[in-house]
Amino acid sequence: PMHPPEVAPLSDKIVLGIDPGTRVVGFGSIALAPKGFLFLGAGVIRTAAKADIATRLGQVRIEIDRMLADLRPGIVVVEEAFAHRNVQSALRIGEGRGVVISAAAASGATVVQVPPSVAKKALVGYGAADKSQVAAMVARLLSLKQVPEPLDATDALALALTYGIRRSSPG
């Protein structure tokens, strides 16, 4: 019988945050260290703007699967849906979230969903903080000289950090 290739086990010390979309998906990964957090990487997946939704979702799935295979995160934190004024845009984001959640669950990772206001409150102290305040705090917590670009990437790192902060605080 054929044996699957040896795969590194998932690590609960590696947290991948994902800010889902269908055109741009932000991602950011950190490692939980004894004295804080280590920055592993961040960026965005950009899909072909002219492609139809099924093609874009397929592109996102391929990239997310590749990332999950490379990083082997034990925890994947996904931004939780929030009410959108635009129904079409809410549906699209929901489709993007579905792809990310299904890929993460299939990899064996624990999926944690965090509303944007909760991430802002955990990092900046209040839920209405703007993206640049969140980005500055992400850079500070990860001891980065520069704020990762673009803001979709720092939003994703904020999600991962929120998990780390909540896990390390008692109660």
Distance between the termini: 48 Å
Task: Write down the secondary-structure element order.
Answer: EEEHEHEHHH
Alpha carbon gyration radius: 16 Å
- Give a quick account of the main beta sheet: strands, pairing sense, barrel closure: 5 strands, mixed
Mean pLDDT: 91
Count of beta strands: 5
Secondary structure tally, helices: 5
- Multimer state: single chain
- The proportion of residues forming helix, as a percent range, comes to 40-55%
Form type: globular
The secondary structure category is: alpha/beta
Which runs of at least 5 residues are low in confidence (pLDDT < 50)? none
Report the portion of residues in β strands.
15-25%
**If strands are numbered along the chain, what order do they take across the biggest sheet?**
3-2-1-4-5
What does this structure look like?
The chain is of the alpha/beta class and 171 residues long. The chain has a five-stranded mixed beta sheet with strand order 3-2-1-4-5. The mean pLDDT is 91. It is globular. The chain has helices at residues 53-71, 87-107, 116-124, 131-141, 151-168, and strands spanning 11-19, 24-33, 36-46, 73-79, 110-114. A hairpin with a 2-residue loop joins strand 2 and strand 3 (36-46). The longest helix is centred in the middle third of the chain and has 21 residues, at 87-107. Helix 1 (53-71) packs parallel to helix 2.
Task: Summarize the structure in short.
About 45% of the residues lie in helices and about 25% in strands. The chain is an alpha/beta fold.
Key terms for this structure?
five-stranded mixed beta sheet; alpha/beta; 171 residues; 5 helices
